[in-house]
Amino acid sequence: MADLTLLEITAYALQILLIFIAIAIVLHKNNRTIIILIASFSLVVSALYVINNAPDVAIAEVAIGAAIIPLIYVISISRQREFIVLDRAMDDFIISDEEFTGYGYRLLKQFTDHYHLDLNICNDPMICQMEGPDQNVCERTNVDLIVSKDEKTGTYYLKGKESSLLMHKLEEMAADYSDIEVQTFKDVEFGE
Amino acid sequence: MLSSVSRKLILIAAMAVVFGLFAASLIDLASLYNDATKDYFFEHGFEETGSNNLVTGILLDYRLFDSLFEAGILLVAVSGVIWVSKHDFADKNPNFMIDKYKTPDLFISFARLVYPLLLAFGLYIILNGHLSPGGGFQGGALAATAILILYFIDKNKETDIKRIVTIEKVLYLAIILVALLSLFTRSTAFTNFVAPAAGRQWQVVYLVTLNVLIGLKVAFGLWTIFTAFLKEGR
Q1: A50 neighbors A111 (Cβ within 8 angstroms)
Q2: Cα separation of B50 and B118, whole Å?
Q3: Residue B175 contacts residue B213 (beta carbons within 8 Å)
Q4: What is the interface pTM, i.e. ipTM, of the complex?
Q5: Who has greater pLDDT, A188 or B207?
Q6: Which CATH number describes the domain made up of A82-185?
Q7: Is B159 domain-assigned?
Q8: B149 with B115: CB under 8 angstroms?
Q9: Which of A175, B153, B218, B226 is the most exposed place for a label (fewest CB within 10 A)?
Q10: What is the pLDDT of residue A181?
Q11: DSSP assignment letter at A129
C-alpha cells in the first residue's frame, strides 16, 4: 500500500467508480437518469485517459461521450415518450376554458397513462389548418393522433396510423363512448 | 437441407478454427509487441513531421493514409443517418421540431453564455493541434456541440442540410488533395508536402491546413447528424 502514489490511488478509485456507474446504467429504469449516468461514465473515462498520458483521446472522449451523445439521446428520448395529439375539433371536447377538462382529454390521459407516455396536445392553428387529407398531415407533422369532429352528427373521430399497435387499445377504451369513433388509415409508403 | 444439429456442429467447428488461428497468433508475442516503431517515432518524429504534438505528427504524417479513411467513415456514417431517417430536404424544418415551450429558460440563458466560449475553444483546439493535445477531430466535435447549442438559443434557426452535406463532401475532397500534394513536391504520397529541410515554420503550414480542413469536415458532418435527429424527432 505504501508504494502507491496519489495519482495511482485516484486511478484505482476512478476505475472502481466506473464499474459502479456501468452497473447503475444497466439496472436503472428511468431513461433520463441513464443519460446522465452515460455522460458521467464518459467523464470518468476521460479523466482516466488523462492519468494515462493520453490527453488527445481524453478531449475526444469528453466532446463525443459527455456532450454530443447525451444531447442526441435527450432529443430522441424526449420525442419517443410523447404521444402527440392534434386537436382539430375546435370545441370543448378536449380543451374547455383554456384547461384540459373535457371528457376526450380524460380518455386520452387514461390511455397515455396506461402506456406511461406523456400526452402532448397540439392545437397550433398553423398545423390545424394544414391542407390535404389527414393521412398526409399526419406524415408531414409526425403527430400520432388527429382529433376531428363531424359537425352534422356530432361524432368525434380519432384517427391514427394503422401500423400503430396503440390504436387497438384506444379502440377498446373508446368503446364505452357512443359519440367517439376510432379510425385508422394506412401509412404513407416510403418514397411515395 | 441440413439438419439443425449438423448446422450447429459446423458452426462450432468454424468457431474452433477461428479461435485456433487466434491462439496460434499469440505464440510469438515478442515479434508482435516490440518498441521498434515507438522508438523510431520518438527519435525522428519531432524533426520529420514538424509537430510538437507527436500524436498529430503521426496522425497527419506517418499514418495519414489511415486518417483519410477515418474521415471517410464519418462521411459514410452521415450518409447512412440521412438515408435511414428518410428525409425530404425541402419538406421538414428543424425549427418545428424543438419544443418551443418546454425548453427551460435557465438552459437557454446558460447556453447563450456557453456558446461563444465553446466555439472559441473548439477553434483553439483545431488551430493549436500541432502544439498541444487536440487536433481536427476533437476541435471539430467541440465546434459541432456549440452549433447544436445554437439550435436551443435560436429556435427559428433554419438549416439547409443539402448545402452542409455538399460542403462536407468538398472538404473531404480538399483533404485528399492536400494529402496528395506531396506526390508532386516530394514524390511520395500521403505525407507533409513541405520537406523537413525547409524548416519547422514551413512544415507547420501543412499541419494547420490539414487540421483546419479536418476540423471543419467533422463539424459539418456532426452538424448534419444533429439536424437529422432534430428533424426526425417530432
Answers
A1: no
A2: 28
A3: yes
A4: 0.77
A5: B207
A6: 3.40.190
A7: yes
A8: yes
A9: A175
A10: 78
A11: T
Average pLDDT over residues A5-22: 93
Distance from CA of B141 to the nearest CA of A (A): 6
Task: Answer whether B219's CB lies under 8 Å from B138's CB.
Answer: no
DSSP three-state, residue A87: strand
Q: Does B160 touch chain A (CB under 8 A)?
A: no
* CB nearest to A63's CB, from B53, B97, B138: B138
Residue A46: all three cell numbers together: 476521460
Q: Classify residue B215: in a domain, yes or no.
A: yes
For chain B, list residues with pLDDT below 50.
Answer: 89-98, 100, 233-234
Give the domain range for residue B145. 51-233
One-letter amino acid identity for A55? P
Q: Which residues pair with A100 in a beta bridge?
A: A95
Alpha helices, H only, chain B: 4-25, 29-32, 36-49, 54-57, 64-84, 94-97, 105-127, 136-153, 161-180, 182-185, 200-233
Q: Which residues of A touch B125 (CB under 8 A)?
A: 59
- Joined together, the cell numbers standing for residue B182 give 506531396
**Measured between beta carbons, which residues in chain B are less than 8 angstroms from residue A140?**
91-92
Q: Establish if B135 touches chain A: CB-CB under 8 angstroms.
A: yes
Q: Which three cell numbers stand for residue B135?
A: 487536433
Strands (E) located in chain A: 82-87, 95-96, 99-100, 118-122, 145-149, 156-161, 180-185
Percent of chain B's residues with pLDDT above 70: 89
| Cα B195 from Cα B183, distance rounded (Å) | 12
Query: Is residue B32 one of the residues assigned to a domain?
Result: no
- Taking an 8 Å cut-off on Cβ atoms, the answer to whether A71 and B145 are in contact is yes
pLDDT band at A192 (very low <50, low <70, confident <90, very high): very low
Grid-cell match 471517410, residue found: B72
Amino acid at B201: Q
- Could you report the per-residue pLDDT of A143-186, keeping only the tens digit for each? 777 777 777 777 777 777 777 777 777 777 777 777 777 877 77
Q: Tell me: the pLDDT tens digits for B28-63?
A: 777 777 888 889 999 988 888 888 888 999 999 899
The CA angle B169-B171-B176, to the nearest 5 degrees, is 100
Number of domains in chain B: 1
Cell numbers at B38, concatenated: 515507438
Cross-strand pairs, A156: A149, A180
In contact, A159 and A167? CB cutoff 8 Å: no
Domain membership flag for residue B1 = no
Across the A:B interface, residue pairs with CB atoms under 8 Å apart total 57
B232 touches chain A (CB under 8 A): yes
CA distance B187 to B154: 49
